[in-house]
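User: Here's a structure from my thesis project, written as structure tokens. My advisor, Dr. K., wants to see whether a designed sequence matches the one we expressed. Can you design one independently, without my sequence as a hint?
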């Protein structure tokens, strides 16, 4: 109760609701959706959503995009896609409300909450793993990563790959806090916090291994390297690139150490088949797609592999939204990129810019072989982190209409 009273004394009601929404992403996704919907309709009633659209440039394109993909889904009788279209509207709208109320204190509290709850998720994942071992009548402790999805730990994030992306995000947050604490030679002044962050990072990395998700490792390495680059830690950037190159060389020489190596050929073959099915449908529906979850809607027509999406961050948006849909939402994203660029120029918080760019790099590297950003928990946390540039709304607005350097 003291914690709740403390939060209420530090934050307004909308900010407290936002922290509840963040905590909810650690619950099973159907509970998360219900909690987010309750908060969303509360914000509508309070007029927060309306203000978010009124005060955020290019935000009207969210409504156009959501309406377009909803109507497209209904036209093709893609009912799951119609539901997800409403989910997109809710997610983007909640992002606008967060941007209105974002502050350095709220952002820091959000990060502490996320990495704190990541410990809870890790403990849950380890308990899951112990029960998996018992199903195989294994006594004692074995470090075995299984191929079958039902035997890979997910910590309530629906499947192991979604949990793996969440761990990428957790570790990036820990890395952000490490960079902040060591800024201007402040290592010894924050030694206790750095040790705690280090232990939480190691715990999450251990659970990342238990997920058996191979794609997460290069995505995490790439994201952290980019964070160093944008934070101007050039020597450390070179070091992590060298370590990454050495790791690639090691696994090429010793492929038996790659998790789930026994099914990697089959894994890539399934991905190739999924992409071929998606591309076939894109050829006939390239203008509007068939709405969210198009692959789930059409795979049977092409004798495709049954799954929810096309497992590629470059293919799936075209498959679902078509060229027209992507063009409709593009002005909103371009405006956000401009604001992030202006924040970079203000030099208010280069480490925050590094975190945001690191997140983006991670989802695109991971997205080459999967589409794990397309999930309630991963999507919500990603959207809130990358929208946090508006903590410095005044400083960004003072930069005027600086154009992008390309």
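Assistant: Designed independently from the structure alone:
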């Amino acid at each position: 109760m003291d914690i709740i009273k403390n939060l209420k004394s530090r934050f307004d009601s909308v900010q407290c609701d936002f922290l509840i929404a963040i905590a909810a992403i650690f619950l099973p996704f159907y509970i998360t959706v219900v909690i987010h919907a309750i908060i969303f309709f509360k914000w509508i009633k309070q007029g927060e959503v309306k203000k978010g659209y009124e005060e955020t440039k290019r935000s009207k394109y969210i409504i156009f995009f959501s309406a377009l993909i909803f109507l497209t889904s209904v036209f093709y009788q893609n009912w799951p896609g119609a539901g997800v279209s409403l989910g997109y509207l809710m997610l983007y709208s909640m992002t606008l409300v967060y941007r209105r109320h974002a502050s350095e204190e709220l952002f820091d509290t959000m990060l502490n909450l996320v990495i704190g709850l990541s410990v809870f998720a890790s403990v849950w994942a380890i308990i899951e793993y112990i029960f998996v071992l018992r199903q195989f009548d294994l006594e004692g402790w074995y470090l075995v990563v299984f191929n079958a999805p039902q035997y890979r730990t997910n910590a309530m994030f629906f499947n192991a790959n979604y949990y793996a992306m969440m761990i990428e995000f957790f570790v990036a947050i820990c890395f952000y806090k490490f960079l902040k604490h060591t800024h201007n030679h402040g290592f010894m002044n924050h030694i206790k916090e750095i040790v705690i962050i280090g232990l939480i990072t190691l715990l999450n990395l251990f659970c990342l291994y238990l997920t058996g998700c191979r794609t997460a490792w290069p995505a995490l390495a790439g994201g952290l390297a980019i964070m160093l680059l944008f934070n101007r830690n050039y020597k450390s950037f070179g070091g992590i690139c060298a370590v990454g190159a050495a790791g690639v060389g090691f696994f090429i020489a010793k492929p038996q150490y790659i998790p789930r190596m026994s099914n990697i050929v089959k894994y890539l073959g399934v991905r190739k088949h999924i992409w071929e099915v998606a591309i076939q449908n894109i050829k006939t529906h390239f203008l509007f797609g068939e709405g969210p979850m198009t692959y789930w809607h059409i795979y049977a027509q092409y004798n495709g592999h049954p799954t929810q999406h096309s497992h590629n961050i470059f293919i799936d948006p075209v498959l679902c939204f078509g060229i027209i849909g992507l063009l409709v939402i593009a002005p909103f994203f371009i405006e956000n990129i401009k604001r992030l660029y202006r924040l970079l120029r203000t030099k208010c918080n280069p480490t925050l810019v590094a975190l945001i760019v690191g997140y983006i790099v991670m989802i695109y590297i991971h997205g080459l072989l999967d589409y794990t950003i397309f999930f309630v928990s991963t999507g919500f946390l990603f959207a809130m982190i990358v929208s946090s540039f508006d903590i410095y709304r005044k400083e960004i607005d003072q930069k005027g209409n600086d154009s992008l350097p390309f």
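When you compare it with your expressed construct, this may help: The chain has 17 helices and no strands.
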